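Archive maintenance. Older records in this collection stored only the sequence; we are now back-filling the structure field for every entry so that each record is complete. The fields below show one back-filled record exactly as it appears after the update. Entries are processed alphabetically, and Trehalose operon repressor is next in the queue.

ARCHIVE ENTRY
Title: Trehalose operon repressor
Organism field: Coriobacterium glomerans
Length field: 256
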Amino acid sequence: MKMRYDAIYRDILHNIEDGTYPYQTLLPSENKLIDVYGCSHNTLRRALAMLAAKGCVQPIQGKGVLVIHRQPAKAAFIVGGIETFKETAARNHLLATTEVVTFEQLEVDQSLADLTGFTMGSQLIHIERVRRLNGMRLIFDNNYFLASAVSGLTPSIAENSVYEYIEHVLHMSIATSRRMITVERCTRRDQELLSIEGFDFLAVVSGWTYSGKGELFEYTQSRHRPDYFCFNDTATRDVANLESPSGKRARDMLSS
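Back-filled structure field:
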């Protein structure tokens, strides 16, 4: 049976992360990988395109596919795409546990509407969770879920994985998350719940997450101890767009 492109992607990614394919070396040739996975050229190329989009590899014309992923020098909680906490912890090879400290239903007032983007009067499930990594209390998650979108949600589900419940029990698709990263001073609540270890600031990731129907169903603020936080993104330079008339106008405006 031929392997799917996403399974091939995950297997090559695992080999990159564990050092089987080291940093700044070329992956095996396309023909070799096709033999290994028993797949078509198109399937393999889709998997390699996913790795390139993630910033793990870079195709070099005339040479092959170069590994450009580097493991962090120390254990870090590397945030990237839309993942569950368990998925992110497993990818970072960290032992993770979750403690639910608040689970309540509330109605959106003006200040909460301004913070979260939910309309006034909406019913939300508010959850506070402390995330332990390798036994240390390093992340404080403040979650607001649209109550109508997460019917049946319980504290025990929140302790395990809300996203697994949403996708596999409620069968709702999770499509898009818009994120903002800031650095903020520790609050008294942070000091109560986290192993601060002398830090007076935290890395804060605020996120607005939308379903496949375009409905905002979650606002979350994740507060991270900075020495165990890393945000991972991949950017590419769109030369074609820069050379277009609109791109030139934008560049001229910036340089004027």
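Update note: The two ends are 59 Å apart (CA to CA). The beta strands are 57-60, 64-67, 77-79, 96-107, 123-133, 136-146, 174-185, 201-211, 216-224, 229-231.
Entry marked complete.
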